[in-house]
Design goal:
GNAT_dom, alpha+beta, acyltransferase activity, transferring groups other than amino-acyl groups, Aminopeptidase, about 20% helix, 4-stranded antiparallel beta sheet
């Protein structure tokens, strides 16, 4: 399984909502707010297998000292396979 990791790449609402729903995150019920938050993040990391979004993480930072990682998730079908370590 080859995992492609990308920083600040493009994301589509449909794939993001599917990933959040697969993890039972309530953020999936607020797609406009979720997408705005992710796109406004200091850093957005995506993990894809065969083009499919299987992992996502974002960072909010002051650009100097403080970094907060509010969302880190991997699709349940890919958990335990090293996606999060990439």
């Amino acid at each position: 399984m080859e995992v492609k990791v990308e920083l600040n790449g493009s994301i589509r609402e449909q794939e993001v909502i599917a990933l959040y729903r697969s993890n039972q995150w309530s953020s999936a019920d607020k797609p406009e707010q979720l997408m705005s938050a992710l796109r406004g993040s200091h850093t957005l990391v995506t993990a894809r297998v065969g083009g499919e979004l299987v992992g996502l993480g974002n960072a909010i930072s002051d650009g100097s000292l403080v970094v907060y990682y509010p969302h880190l998730l991997v699709h349940p079908d890919h958990q335990g396979k090293g996606v999060g370590r990439k």
